[in-house]
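Obj.: predict assembly geometry.
Materials: sequence records (below).
Method: joint structure prediction, all chains together.
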Amino acid sequence: MAERPSGVKKNEARTSPVRFRHKHLLAISDLDRFEIESLLARAEAFAPLAEQKIKKLDTLRGRTLINLFFENSTRTQSSFELAGKRMGADVVNMSVKSSSVAKGETLIDTATTLNAMRPDLLVIRHGASGAAELLSQKVDCAVINAGDGKHEHPTQALLDALTIRDRLGAIEGLVIAICGDILHSRVARSNVALLTMLGARVRLVGPPTLMPAGADRWGAKVFHDMRQGIKDADVVMMLRVQRERMDGGFFPSAREFFWFYGLDEDKLKFAKPGAVVMHPGPMNRGVEIDSGVADNPNISLIETQVRMGVAVRMAVLEALAESGSNAGAR
Ligand code: CP
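Observations (raw structure tokens):
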């Protein structure tokens, strides 16, 4: 368990950096409730910075952050870049397509090469589950998992939690339905771990073909009927159908998927009145979500999720930069 530093009051974390016992951020399942709440409180303090004319701090001045994305990204990569720059770090975005990876260089060789340049923080996204952990064993700096295969996407879950808190005040006791392609989703795995830790009642909703074996043991209730699954939910979190990870056979057609599992205004009527809708992006409009729901500012938190992504990543970068200078951090 992370110790609450003696003498630190509940909200004091808002104004001081998170004291993190970890060297890396690889998975939500490595964190405890106090660490998560401290990161969220710190991110909450950073969020208003985006509305200011001068958005820059010098907390990470002199530190180097490398973004190493082996899979495509719009939101995560750009928000880590912005977060690093707003904290004053020097940020390098490695373009994997034009790097020596395209010539066959391995992940490990790429990592040791970058390590020789002495970065302080390395953000990695990779298609293989466990890639971030493997990298963390090969480099000296802090490693942040920006999504590894079907495993975890911890900063996505943190920004989702911050978004829910921003709109609904608290997470404890909420009914949160995570819907769609659970099988391929690292977002679902990280969110179930985080939201259940914060006291939400989490449901997983999707067709049997897109529900991982053993999902009922994750701490969430499994539903295969969309209307039953979102009934009286406070939050309906839709997931992207990850067609690039499918080789056919998971569902007959996009049209049929939308008929049974796509969120539209009719299905949303089954959720609690005032329920909010989330999606990590990028969206497949007309497959898992209808534009009438996604673009309705009264119910859709999708833009807020993107905004909170920068604040959460600032809090994470700061915490890891701090912990990197603590002897004994793992
Ligand atoms: N939510 C998410 O990870 O989006 P990107 O793939 O655009 O980074």
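Conclusions so far: The CA atoms of residues 19 and 319 lie 6 Å apart.
To do: check interface contacts against the pulldown list.
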